[in-house]
Amino acid sequence: MMVKTRSVIATLATAFTFLCSSVVPVFGFNQSPAIPLFRTTLRGVGPGGIPVALPDPKKAPVTGVTHYTIDIRQFKDQILPEGWPRTTFWGYNPTIGLGGNTTPTLLGGIIIGQKGTPIQITFRNKLAVENHILPVDTTIPGSEPGVPVNRTSVHLHGGLVPWISDGGPNSWFGTSGDVGPSFLNNQVLNPGANPGEAEYYYPMNQSARFMWYHDHAMGITRLNAYAGVASGLIIRDNFEKALIQEGLPEFIEDGGNEIPLVIQDKIFVGKHIATSDPTWTGLKDYGSLWYAHTYDPSRWDLLSGGKPLPDPSAVPEFFADTMLVNGTAYPKVTVQARRYRLRLLNACNARFLNLQLYLADSSKEGITLDASGNPTNAPFLNHAAGDTPNFLQIGTEGGFLSKPAMVASNVPLVVPAPVSGAVDPSLVQKSLLVGPAERPDLLVDFSDVQPGTDVVLYNDAPAPFPMGDPVNDYFPGLNNGNSVNLTTQPGFGPNTRVLMRFHVEAALPPKDPTLKIGTATNLARGIDPNLVPWESDRVPPAVAKRFLTLNEYHDDYGRLIQILGNEANPFGSPYDMMATYLDYGRAPGQSAMVMASRENVKDGDTEVWEIYNTTGDVHPMHFHLVNVQVINRQGFDSLSYPYVAKGPVIPPDPNERGWKETVLNYPGTVTRVIMKFDLSKAGIISQEGKPIEVPPSPRTGGAEYVCIVDPIFRTIV
User: Is the distance from CB of 479 to CB of 243 less than 8 angstroms?
Assistant: First the structure.
């Protein structure tokens, strides 16, 4: 069972409500069939791989900028090995693709643009189906009966955009002209849009970086993103281009050794789904996607006394058993013994990754574990990191780091026991830790690897992170309490530890240029100016501060949910908003979807946000419409309110010393970030060169700016 709620209000609640011990009729958590490892090839980006979107011949309406048209549709894709059935997805599909490639493909629709060159996109909702491909819980806000299940809202994750193009949860659009209460996109950008179309404007006034765009519709984000509604957007700039002379690999669109690696976890329907999961209402075809739809109290906390559990039911967090990289299961790829730029995205719904590289051994997984469950393999030595077992990380979500950082590539995860509910981040032994939505930018050089050798990308992060539950940890023969492992054959899944395999061949001429990028290289020249010195962990005394808490609570059904609290409502208590938020079963129409925003800020202001995590899990928090700088972390007693930070101040990790928009919040720890709200980068300019006024959001009460904070893909979205 996952770590329990730690907030004071929940502790008091358990004084009169006991943890449910009654038997709830649920069937076993579905497991994927035995999918073989290394039988698929890693997909590249471009012709023959994941489609790259190209602009339309005509310019955009209203603004006259470069315009794209991208459909959102249902399709089948061969992501499992040859001979296995194709899997049905929802996803993005460009109408014009690089090299003529417009084949509907998982992760398709990647956009590559230039800083300072705005783009506009018409997204066309072609999901003309009555049912979702996954079971939909109609008891949570935004998914009430009558709201279209094929609704979608496009969010550019990390984008500084006008709020109408942010793709907020309430800005969804369906196929027939039905829209959410905050949808004003077409009113400003394309008054002549057809039903089912939505217009988005991206100013592209940000430094070089790898972003992604995905569905964000209220009540269904977790399902749509899992179903495949996600792709990438890369911004280039002159600073990044100049780094090629310093040894940065050439860009992928120019045929260079730049490889995006998008990592996801999925579960697939087996041949006997009718008997193994008789209440399953999703697609029943062999090889289809499966998602948890029955609230199982052996996996997730459940308080008694609530209303009868629905089925389908949302679950607090979902961990799958099969790893995909670039949209195929357990792929292999051939690389040369030379330098590569690996641009990672953790696109899992909730699973953290502790990524490592090892030389493969002769086992079918390429990895052998000792009695403690750790690899016995020889470490991979990275020539780009001085022939050491380290990644050389040069960037994160907000572009380049201030300086590159050495990050271990062969350290198994060790988490200290919590003290008063707190996990000290400085004591966590790890390699490259990547939370959902985080995007490390890495230099990896295979020059030290003997040609003919294989290198395995490996993960051992517990799920939920950091304390974990063995039922979410899959590896053949691993005797960790997960009975599935004892029946899994070598060389097959379920397996969440082995992600993919690199096969190294001799390098062909010409040789790579000398690498002049190292830990002393000043990359801060290519990103926005810092608000506090990059090496500082001190909070500026004169900056306004905002108090937030991250809590776990239980809804009217007794289900565990995540709630954000603030100074006025520190526990995220639902008591003051029961009728419009938590009483899902009685929420009339869209009332639960239009709550006024509580974190409204002013354009031009600089603020420090202190986020107190009262839960037992590390939560990645994503900031909309602003990037943040991590200042420090500090422990506090999450069972004693008012919360008082105590103990040593913990500086950010070296690979956090850059601009971030997804920040890890550790249990019993306050995380302090600083940000400046700057709408000047998010304006819309007309064809005549004049600013276009954007109407205020219906949720802000007329405020100039609203910053949405997401706990990524959890229950509510």
Answer: no
Rounded to whole angstroms, the Cα distance separating 688 from 293 reads 51
**Run of H or E residues at 345:** strand 339-346
CA-closest candidate to residue 430, choices 466, 383, 395: 466
**Helices H / strands E in the chain, number of each:** 5, 35
Per-residue confidence at 597, pLDDT binned at 50, 70, 90?
Answer: low
Contact predicate 709/622, CB 8 Å: yes
In tens, the pLDDT along 605-636 reads 999 999 999 999 999 999 999 999 999 999 99
Residue with tokens 């935004």: 142
What are the φ/ψ torsions at residue 331 (nearest 5 degrees)? -80, 165
Q: Nearest-CA neighbor of 282 among 271, 292, 295? A: 292
Strand ranges for 542-625 from DSSP E: 544-554, 560-566, 600-601, 606-613, 619-623
Are 579 and 643 contacting, i.e. CB atoms less than 8 angstroms apart?
Answer: no
Q: Is residue 580 within 8 Å of residue 587, measured between CB atoms?
A: yes
Closest CA to 171 of 150, 155, 190, 147: 155
Q: Which residue has the tokens 């217009």?
A: 199
Strand partners, 266: 322
Contacts of 387 (CB under 8 A, 6+ apart): 381, 448
Q: Which residues of 213-239 are buried (b: 16+ CB within 10 A; e: fewer)?
A: bbbbbbbbbbbbbbbbbbbbbbbbbeb
CB proximity list for 177: less than 8 A, separation 6 or greater: 195, 196
pTM > 0.90: yes or no:
yes
DSSP structure string for 317-328: ----SEEEETTE
Residue type, 666: Y
Average pLDDT across the chain, whole number: 90
CA angle 426, 407, 373 (to 5 degrees): 75
For residues 94 and 54, the answer to whether their CB atoms sit within 8 Å is yes
Q: Are 267 and 30 in contact (CB under 8 A)?
A: yes
Roughly how many angstroms between the first and final C-alpha of the chain, as a whole number? 22
Token couple for 454:
């294989």
Q: What is the CB neighbour count within 10 angstroms for residue 566?
A: 13
Backbone angles phi, psi at 396, to 5 degrees: -145, -160
Q: Could you tell me the CA-to-CA distances from 634 to 224, 352, 665 in Å, in that order?
A: 36, 22, 11
- Over residues 246-250, the mean pLDDT reads 98
